[in-house]
Write a structure and sequence with these properties.
Its EC number is 6.2.1.1. This protein is α/β, with parallel strands linked by helices and 631 residues long. Helices cover 32% and strands 24% of the residues. It is built from 19 helices and 30 strands. The strands form 8 sheets. It has an 8-stranded mixed β-sheet with strand order 12-11-8-6-7-14-15-23, sandwiched between helices. Strands 5-4-17-16-18-19-20 form a 7-stranded mixed β-sheet, with helices on both faces. The chain is globular, with a radius of gyration of 24 Å. It starts with 5 loop residues before the first helix and ends with a helix. Bound molecules: 5'-O-[(S)-ethoxy(hydroxy)phosphoryl]adenosine (WTA). The site of 5'-O-[(S)-ethoxy(hydroxy)phosphoryl]adenosine (WTA) has 24 residues, from helix 10, strand 19, strand 20, strand 24 and strand 25.
Length: 631
């Protein structure tokens, strides 16, 4: 099944299209199933209803842990690099990780969690986070990991939507020179979360925390009460493995649902092939486990393949901008998988931070999360890969579970800024606004998929209709990605960015509507409109046009802006704070009351020469005012 040459790729691709069921059955049989499946695939994209490996029984942790014990029990499964380079790290072998996952699973059981219960995980990037996730999977509980940068309000929304029974957190987290009081944020969240019965608190920063009797327990004390014997729960291939909340163009974030069988097969298959992973290699994915990239390519994909996965607690610029290279050197990293925003920010610090490190262990470089610009691509290639490591620009989404369009390292000829070709099993299609297929090469359109792959989302938690509407109704019969895409003369794909109202700020997905709602919660704000604009490091910055109760006088404007930022931080989290705020007296609206975002985007981009047709505006004069006041 392993692709080694471009011929292999072409053959695999062809089979995956001609006989997808046989293709994926072949891949899936390499895993450990308690009971084989009876039907490889059942699907339609209208309801939608997608099932892979129907009737198959398994537990993903048996595949990620138990299965490896005989052959590589003493090989490192997780290498943990702490925030502070002077603190001792931790290396967990497969045997140790198995042991700890079983213990944590028993702690969960002791605290009333069973199969199908939802568990919210709000943790620093420490081994216990991966352990918590796997412990849930061990007993069939559904994890919902919330990134440690989200606010109490965001946690509460996610906990309530999924009706979580238990929260796993830590006293605090270290990120660079900051200390984040995680438990205190959770306490604020839980004021509005009646479904939560228990909170398990890990000690990390020794920050004083409130511990409520009957609700809060210390992880370390709980672990003393259990054994390492925890048989894995038998799961159906289509039982839910996890929920991960992600932003869309409307309303609150949705809980994307992935299931046990298909997700496992897809995460592992793409990990092994795209990175051309070889046994014994060290894989360093710099994402946080709070995002899908961390789920699929720190935890499940690498462990399902028996790889060594490096987990880094800190940030790329602490204690200085050489930290990634320091880690690569220290742990002899073979595969480095990071985001363009990190590359761009490190580029700015110059080459001295790179040159004093030995990067010769690197074999493959990966990029994910946003379009990579040519300059960043070449810097990565020249200075990190020294022109000897293939770069895989992997395009995918929370909803896709794993990479869909990506080069296969050393196999697919790369082209800067191109995600290149669809992986086996992936059938992309470009369509115009009316849903008509755009055929041929040298074209661009909206990116859709016409056939399911095992890692595709199954539903959005608690609201299947929302899943249908968001992804399967824009173009009937197709999965719509929300991305724009061009296919060049060679048939290579290049993702050009979102075509909906979703921003991509430093590789983080944020809905404009979400930010607007947060801004509108500020007491002095009447209305707002948020758009993205090109940002040198973040990829996209957030530009907010705000109508205030009373137009703030110059000396107050700055304070009001800061209050708005504080409000957004409080409602969503610091990652959603606008980079620019402009107070306006009105917004460009059509006679039917629709905001013309096209105009606002142009102004935010600093391109006011050609604003297109403004004759349908209710009050065209407002455009001149906005142009004049642009920040
Ligand atoms: C964008 C992250 C260009 C895209 C795995 C997508 C990319 C959104 C790339 C999903 C890439 C991700 N090139 N754009 N290689 N990878 N994107 O759900 O707009 O956090 O729709 O998943 O990121 O973001 P998400």
């Amino acid at each position: 099944m392993r692709i080694r040459t471009f011929d292999d790729y072409q053959q695999a691709y062809q089979q995956s299209v001609e006989d997808p069921e046989a293709f994926w059955a072949g891949v899936a049989q390499e895993f450990q199933w308690r009971k084989p499946w009876t039907k490889t695939l059942q699907w339609n994209f209208t309801e939608p209803n997608i099932k892979w490996f129907v009737g198959g029984k398994l537990n993903i942790t048996e595949n990620c842990l138990d299965r490896h014990l005989a052959e590589r029990g003493d090989q490192p499964a997780i290498i943990w690099e702490p925030n502070d380079p002077h603190e001792a790290g931790v290396t967990l072998t497969y045997r140790m990780l198995h042991d700890q996952v079983c213990r944590m699973a028993n702690v969960l059981k002791r605290n009333g969690v069973g199969k199908g219960d939802r568990v919210c995980v709000y943790m620093p990037m420490v081994p216990e986070l991966a352990i918590a996730v796997l412990a849930c999977a061990r007993i069939g509980a559904i994890h919902s990991v919330v990134f440690g940068g989200f606010s109490a309000q965001s946690i509460a929304d996610r906990i309530n939507d999924a009706q979580c029974r238990l929260v796993i957190t830590a006293d605090g987290a270290y990120r660079g020179n900051k200390e984040i009081p995680l438990k205190s944020v959770v306490d604020d969240a839980l004021i509005g979360c009646p479904s939560v019965e228990k909170v398990i608190v890990m000690t990390r920063t020794r920050t004083p925390v409130a511990m409520l009797k009957g609700r809060d327990v210390w992880m370390e004390q709980e672990l003393k009460q259990v054994t390492a014997d925890c048989p894995a729960e038998e799961m159906d291939a289509e039982d839910v493995l996890f929920i991960l909340y992600t932003s869309g163009s409307t309303g609150k974030p949705k809980g994307v649902v992935h299931t046990c069988g298909g997700y496992m097969v897809y995460a592992a298959y793409t990990f092994e092939n795209v990175f051309q992973y070889e046994p014994g290699q060290v894989h360093f994915c710099t994402a946080d486990i709070g995002w899908i990239t961390g789920h699929s390519y720190i935890v499940y994909g690498p462990l399902a393949c028996g790889a060594t996965s490096l987990l880094f607690e800190g940030v790329p610029t602490y204690p200085d901008a050489g930290r990634f290279w320091d880690i690569v050197d220290k742990h002899q990293v073979n595969i480095l998988y990071t985001a363009p925003t990190a590359i761009r920010s490190l580029m700015g610090f110059g080459l001295d931070k790179v040159e004093n490190h030995d990067l010769s262990s690197l074999k493959v470089l990966g990029s994910v999360g946003e379009p990579i610009n040519a300059e960043a691509w070449h810097w990565y290639d020249d200075h990190i890969g020294k022109n000897r490591c293939p770069i895989v620009d992997t395009w995918w989404q929370t909803e896709t579970g794993g990479m869909l369009i990506s080069p296969i390292a050393g196999v697919t000829k790369t082209k800067p800024t191109y995600a290149t070709l669809p992986l086996p099993g992936v059938q992309p299609m470009l369509v115009d606004e009316n849903g008509k297929e755009i055929e041929g090469n040298g074209v661009s359109g909206n990116l859709c998929m016409k056939f399911p792959w095992p890692g595709i989302l199954r539903t959005t938690w608690g609201d299947h209709e929302r899943c249908r509407q968001t992804y399967f109704s824009t173009y009937p019969g197709l999965y719509f990605t929300g991305d724009g895409c061009l296919r060049d003369e060679d048939g290579y794909y290049r993702i050009t960015g979102r075509v909906d109202d979703v921003l991509n700020v430093s590789g983080h997905r944020i809905g404009t509507a979400e930010v607007e709602n947060a801004i509108n919660m500020h007491t002095g704000v009447v209305e707002s409109a948020v758009v993205g604009y090109p940002h040198d490091i973040k990829g996209q910055g957030i530009y907010a046009y705000v109508i205030a109760d009373a137009m703030p006088a110059d000396h107050d404007a700055d304070l009001t802006k800061r209050d708005i930022l504080a409000t957004v931080s409080r409602v969503i989290g610091p990652i959603a704070k606008p980079d620019k705020i402009q107070f306006v007296s009105g917004l460009p609206k059509t006679r039917s009351g629709k905001i013309m975002r096209r105009i606002l985007r142009k102004i935010a981009e600093g391109d006011t020469s050609n604003l297109g047709d403004t004759t349908t505006l209710l009050d065209p004069a407002v455009v001149d005012e906005i142009k004049a006041g642009a920040v």
